[in-house]
Amino acid sequence: MDQVTKALALRFLELYQPVSVIPEVLWFTLAFNDRAAFSLGGANTWVFTLLASIVCMALLWFGPKFKTKSWLILAGVALGGVSGNLIDRLFRNPGFPNGHVVDFIQIPFNFPIFNIADMAISSAAFLIALKVVKGEKFGGSK
């Protein structure tokens, strides 16, 4: 889904030209992120590419071993998000391992422009933290 929405953004949006979707609430604005999440890590994006690769491999290895549907779903959502942005880092300009991530979803409050993969990563991380705080073992049951 992430790569499909990025392809649509590339096809139909112009760079930094906002298109109002819901007035005052949501715009689509094409941008290329040469940094990590929330514009951190400027010239060191290769580090995030390496970390994302490790996370993808770990999720592919450990994900099938999770014992509950909720953990399996969270692992899948996290894997989808991490791999979505990793694909950009590997294959988009300026090239491996520093490709720029396609972002296009913009909300008010000076929040950074983001994409579907970012939403998946943030949502999965929040829900995983919540489950751990509630006492669920990572990947298993209480």
Topology:
Blueprint: H1 2-12, E1 19-22, E2 26-33, H2 45-62, H3 69-91, E3 101-106, H4 116-133
Antiparallel strand pairs: 1-2, 2-3
Helix pairs in contact: 2-3, 3-4
Low-confidence stretches: none
Order of helices and strands: HEEHHEH
What integer is the average pLDDT?
92
- Please tell me what the overall shape is: globular
Helix content: 40-55%
Largest sheet: 3 strands, antiparallel
What's the arrangement of strands in the largest beta sheet?
A: 1-2-3
N-C termini distance: 32 Å
Q: Give a count of the beta strands, DSSP E runs of length 2 or more.
A: 3
Our count of domains comes out at: 1
Q: For the CA atoms, what is the radius of gyration?
A: 16 Å
Counting helices, strands and paired strands, the structural category is alpha+beta
Task: Report the β-strand fraction as a percent range.
Answer: 5-15%
Q: What's the helix count?
A: 4
